[in-house]
Specification:
With 171 residues, this protein is of the alpha/beta class. It is 47% helix and 13% strand. A 4-stranded mixed β-sheet has the order 1-2-3-4, with helices on both faces. The longest helix is centred in the first third of the chain and has 18 residues. The two termini are 25 Å apart.
C-alpha cells in the first residue's frame, strides 16, 4: 500500500474496544463483549479491538487492517501488544491483525485457525454476533496462554436453504 493510499483512507474514530460501524453485532452481545475486552485489557494490558466496517474503501482487507491498526494505535506504545479483529460484511472478508508484542502467543497460524474454524463458519450461518464473540473470547484465551489450540467447528448438516446461503456467502 502506498503512503498516498493510507492517507486517502477515512477512518471513523474508535468509541471503545468494540466498534460496530456496520451494525452487525446484536446490542446485548456488543455490550457484553465490550465489558469482557475492557476487563481483559485491565488484567493483561493487551488491547483487542473489534471493528466492523461497511467498506474497505477499495483497498485489500490486509491494507485496511494494517492502516487502521496504525491509525488507532491499537496496543500499548513500545509494547505493540494489540489485536484487531476486522470484519467487512459487504465485501465478505475478515482479518485478524496482531501486533509484534503478542505475536508469540497469537501467531499467524492461530489467527488463521480462528478465521477458518470460528469466524467463517459462524458468518456462513449469518451469526455475526456469535462468531465475533467466540473469536474474541478465544483470542483472549490464547493471548493469556490459557489455551493453545483453536477448537474445530463441529460438522453440521445443512438444509437446502442453508446450503444455498452458504454457497452465496462463500463467493
Amino acid at each position: 500500500m502506498s503512503a498516498q493510499t493510507a492517507f486517502a483512507l477515512d477512518f471513523q474514530k474508535p468509541r471503545g474496544f468494540v466498534n460496530d460501524f456496520a451494525d452487525i453485532i446484536e446490542t446485548s452481545a456488543e455490550n457484553q463483549l465490550e465489558a469482557s475486552l475492557e476487563n481483559f485489557e485491565k488484567e493483561t494490558s493487551h488491547e483487542i479491538a473489534v471493528v466492523t466496517v461497511n467498506s474497505l474503501q477499495e483497498v485489500t482487507v490486509e491494507e485496511f487492517a494494517v492502516a487502521l491498526f496504525a491509525e488507532w494505535g491499537i496496543g500499548k506504545k513500545g509494547v505493540d501488544n494489540g489485536v484487531l479483529i476486522l470484519v467487512a460484511p459487504n465485501e465478505r472478508v475478515a482479518r485478524i491483525e496482531v501486533g509484534y508484542g503478542i505475536s508469540g502467543a497469537l501467531t499467524d497460524a492461530k489467527s488463521s485457525e480462528i478465521m477458518q474454524n470460528i469466524l467463517i463458519p459462524a458468518f456462513k450461518e449469518w451469526d455475526f454476533s456469535g462468531g465475533i464473540t467466540k473469536a474474541a473470547n478465544i483470542t483472549m484465551q490464547i493471548a493469556k496462554g490459557e489455551i493453545v489450540d483453536v477448537p474445530k467447528t463441529a460438522k453440521v448438516k445443512f438444509t437446502f436453504e442453508q446450503l444455498i446461503m452458504l454457497i452465496f456467502f462463500a463467493y
